[in-house]
Design goal:
Catalytic activity: L-tyrosyl-[protein] + ATP = O-phospho-L-tyrosyl-[protein] + ADP + H(+)
Largest sheet: 6 strands, mixed
Number of strands: 21
Shape: globular
Structural class: alpha+beta
Domain SH2: 79-168
Enzyme class: transferase
Strand content: 15-25%
Family: Belongs to the protein kinase superfamily. Tyr protein kinase family.
EC number: 2.7.10.2
Amino acid sequence: MVISICYVTYLTDHRSLCPARVVNLLLVFDICYKMNQTAGIQHWTDLDSFGRGNSSSPPDIVPPPRPRKSEVKLNSMPWFHGKISRDKAEDLLTPREDGLFLVRESTNFPGDYTLCVCWQGRVEHYRVHYKDNQLTIDEEEYFENLAQLVEHYEKDADGLCTRLCKSLPKEGHPEFCVDAKAFLEAGWAISHNDIELQESLGKGEFGEVRLGLLRGDKVAVKVLKDSSKAAQKFLAEASLMTSLRHPNLVQLLGVVLEGRNIYLVTEYMSKGSLLDYLRSRGRLHVTKTDQINFAYDTCAGMEYLEKRRVVHRDLAARNVLISEDCVAKVADFGLAWREEAIASETCGKLPIKWTAPEALKKNKFSNKSDMWSFGVLLWEIYSFGRVPYPRIHLSDVLKKVEHGYIMDAPDSCPPAVYELMKKAWHLNPDLRPSFFEVEGRNEIIFEMQCIIQLLLRLPLVYPRKGIILSIEMILSLQHSFRDDLLASYFFNNMENPMLFHLFNQVKIQV
């Protein structure tokens, strides 16, 4: 005798029931098999466990320590004018009141800064350089960031021509910096002795990523290059991550800030980047269920960023990581910034094939430019990791896109997914969907897929009268749409929204 009981419960937003929008799905079911006096019980209480395999090994994820840490705030730097010339700085500093000042990037010493101060009708230029990851003018006083340096010389000239009296604010959005001590005060500091560095996982702009052990648990460790002049950018990425907590974002565990050691410690994603995952496994091993899972996970993470008004600016398959249980998580927040804090000047090298036209031409970044990148990421998922815009030279991509060029759908890409790509690539950012809108659509697709997987896993040995459900529909799906993305749309696109109520409570009994 086999007894199977399944409950499927929906929480439905009745205000948008046509077509019904499923807000959340709880799958809580116990399947109890009793045969020959042998019993086994299996529980699924997490939707994410569906369609991702049944690995018995725990994921290589270190839960954040408790108590909950607080967010690390950035310090505003209204007096920082970025990359301007010496002559431009002198033109801006008028009238030349004693103590009027600004800070700019050094033109003669790339990576350093210059403090420009008015004194007796002249402008004095002081080089601010890095030494052992700290800033100094005279190699007597050292500071963790520019904000600390300016604060010090606002109190006392201490060797300068005059005390800093009045800052010249930059027009537009101010720059920001972060105080390393803030990580300690907010509870994010990790002792260097608690980290054991192992093999390299890859190299990036600021240094390399190493596999590490944090008190015996696997973690990923971003190691800043010795005496790197990018320490502030590195810490800015970490400070942003302290405010982000979502199951589809790679989580920060802490930072190491001891002496010359600057480490950023995150959860370890054992299956690497989504790009490598797609390319190494290909069509033989990456199922359509996997594809929709990856798309849904990424969209859910981006919808959270959108809600927090954070713009990623570098969304691509290479910057989405896969956990041991095949959950996709958005990573690499090196270019990410809060929407209101994005500076007007260029942010450096941009991935042309993934970046929206308005961002490439006018540096206008927003969640809608992230949506453009998401469309390209979808194309990567359904092409199994191909490079976007194949057979088009990099220098020609922007020009062709501005003239209306849109990539063809990858082979076997569902039409509805390709339609979403095309909406994401609308030249007018205002006409692109939001991640909230797309995530709601994907949620329906993903949850219908889970129901189909559940129903197709159950042994079809029950008499019709024992199944309180439209068995003809399930049999049709089994024979015609099994393990196919279109099966999700079979449910989602039915004209009668009452179809969803059939699944309000499903009981399968014998």
